[in-house]
Every structure is written in structure tokens, then in C-alpha cells.
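Attaching the record inline, Q. Sequence:
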Amino acid sequence: MFSKKQQMMQQPNRAAQYILGNGDVLLVTVNLWGHVLKPGIYSVPSSYSLIDLISSAGGPLSTARLNDVRVVRKNQEVIKVNLEKFLKTGDASSLPTLQPGDTIIVSGSIQDVFTKMVAIFRDLAIIVNVFVLASRVNN
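Structure, as predicted:
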């Protein structure tokens, strides 16, 4: 009933999710979002840990909540990772292995949200002030 091409599209080839890099290094492609210096799409060696990936992106920003990092898998599984605990204990068993298509989200602190809100109110106040001053000049 289905053509060969349709059957191949319905059954993803797991081996095709890996890339062979220079020196026959097996690479996985992952997305890195959030509070890191350089978020983006990374193709990293399959042996890389979550720490290696974040380090490759320039490290976490000062607003990063390292106790709330999430790894979202292609199958919609969400793994919460506490990198602060790893940094204190060095226990690498708490770090998940990176898989092709993973999306890693480094959350920001509530302080960062507050700072952004204050900046928005500051900008709005400046705009209102300009209009008030302009109306006084015209009168």
C-alpha cells in the first residue's frame, strides 16, 4: 500500500541522526537555549557532556539558574538537571548523555525577569515624559 519512500519517511533511521566529523568523530546535533553566552545549534562529539556543551557555548550567564536546566528529548521526555549539585559534588552520573535532537534550556533567575520589567517601565516612563514635555512646549 505504501511506497518504499513513504515507508522510509515513517520509520526514522536512528543512525542518520548522527554525523561523522573530522577524524571519524561521531557528532550529535543539539539545540542550546537560554542563559548561556552563545545559544544556538551545536554539533558536538557524542562523548560530550552537558558541561562540555555549555562550556562550548561560552558558559552560563550570571543570570543562569544552574539548578534548573532542562533537557527536552525528541520523544518529549523532559529531564531536569541540577548543574549546581554537579559542580559541588563532581558526580557526573547526574548528567544525562546528550542525544541527537536534544534541546537544552538553561533557565534564568527571577532577578533577570525583574530587571527586564524595570527596564520596560523605565522606557515607558521616558516616552510618557517626552510627550508631557512636548505638550507643555506646544502650550
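The two ends are 79 Å apart (CA to CA). The chain is about 35% helix and 25% strand.

More tomorrow.
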